Amino acid sequence: MAQDIDEIIEGFEFIDDWEERIRYLIELGRELAPLPDADRTPETKVQGCASQVWLATDIGEGDNPVLTFRGDSDAHLVRGLVAVMVALYSGKRARDILATDAGQVMERIKLREHLTPQRSNGLRSMVERIKREAAAASRVGASHAAS
Description:
It is built from six helices and three strands. The protein starts with a helix and ends with a helix.
């Protein structure tokens, strides 16, 4: 079972060595539930990532729905980044997702300064995708409430 974001942050806070941080990130990716082939579609593929990344979204009901994210990547390190983003955003309400700053979390766990520009761009693409999904879910919920 995947860890929650507080457990992940706590795990990173105990690790000083960069290579150990990478190993921990890869381990987080290994703990991520596999994404079924049916969810590996052009619609779920995240554009802007050098590696292949898929994010599937389940949207709850209401004007501020809970969104659940499932993801995967073909690269071990990136799969770990997907696990961190899923832990950060999955199971939250749309408005909370929109208000959550992934950059602050990446600074706190001291990963940002060690990511290559390509991986940083891919991470940004994942976050933008998640926030677009949350914004769309929030608008859809609001339009249903108005009807």
